[in-house]
UniProtKB/TrEMBL annotation:
Residues 47-131 form the F-box domain. InterPro entries: F-box_dom (IPR001810). Residues 27-36 have a biased composition (Basic residues). This is F-box domain-containing protein. It comes from the Eukaryota. Pfam families: F-box-like_2.
Amino acid sequence: MAPTTREATKKARSPPLGPGSTAAQNRPRKKAKKARKAEEAKHAPVEISSTRCQLLELPPELRNRIYHFCDDNRYMGIFRKIKTGKEKPGHKQTGAFVALAQVCKQIRFEYRPLWLRQLRIRVDFSDLEEFLQVFYCVLDRHEDWYRDAPTILTIAWDHDENDYGDGDTLISIESLLKLHAYSPASTIEFECRRLAESDLPCTDCWECGLCVHCVRGPFSIDCNFSSDVYDSHYTCEHDETIGEIVSVLAAEYEYLAALNTFLNNNNAAWLKHVQEKCLDYDSINCTMGKDCGQATIYIRFREPEAPKHLRTRNMHRGASAYLTEMGMADLEGWQELDYVVGVRTDKYSRSIDGVPEPVYDQALIRDLKSKTRSSSAQAVKQAPDSAVQG
């Protein structure tokens, strides 16, 4: 009878096995053969196939044209440092084309500066120092790194939740000034974090009586709001109450507008002075906060590097002349800023903690366009640990 299946056909065509021969007897030979091939492959030289990158084979002009289209014009939320090990894993929104800036050394060298310059980024004030160190290496790199300043650098500031918002603690702003001095087209500004994130304080709505903060969530531990009372279908929009809160916050943070104008001063003499003399400054700091209601700029020099205007006995007149030459009197909202300009002396005084602090011969300028003397005295004040190291 003829075989009716493929397997039966194979058996019919194969030669008959000898006496005592079985299929199981052939298995050790197959295993030994496979083991020998695996051993040979193990000691054989590895052949690495070179992957071609067609982007790098293009002429530089075409690559620059491609980089030109990789422009991320989004203005995302506040960029914060990710604390590993504490947050739940999840998707984090990042800027577009950041992966392209890390492909290889050549693309990183060509595209990363372009990517940094087109950034529009918000950074929380607590992360500002580390952000500048990571992306701009302001502590130990060449001045060319400052030329890659982002298009817009916005610093989220909250004087209620910040150790530097008491109006008395000095904040170093040298790095921000150098970024703008080498990239005058960039915009560096502080903004109210609460307004940027719509993080309104706990306030009862005038119409429905519910807390406008906790209705949006998350619930505040300082509020008596109960989620059981809230009806998700309640139609109150709290418009009037929210509008009043926003107006109050805008008034509290109004001092930031004058500070932003100072940070973006495009006076040619000032930009040149920051580029050439910033490292000779003893300190460029500011103080600001809710209690003082305005920002005060501290510009103080070591005696050998002090400009000619400050090498005089009348420190107030010299400081006013220096600030006028640097274009401070031409800034919009200049009357909202106070300036402390002075020169470090060779004297020291001990603080409450017993730490020696230098004495400055300095003048407080409250009105640049006034010829009356505001104040001039030797001051004992030294910047503590700054938030932004320059």
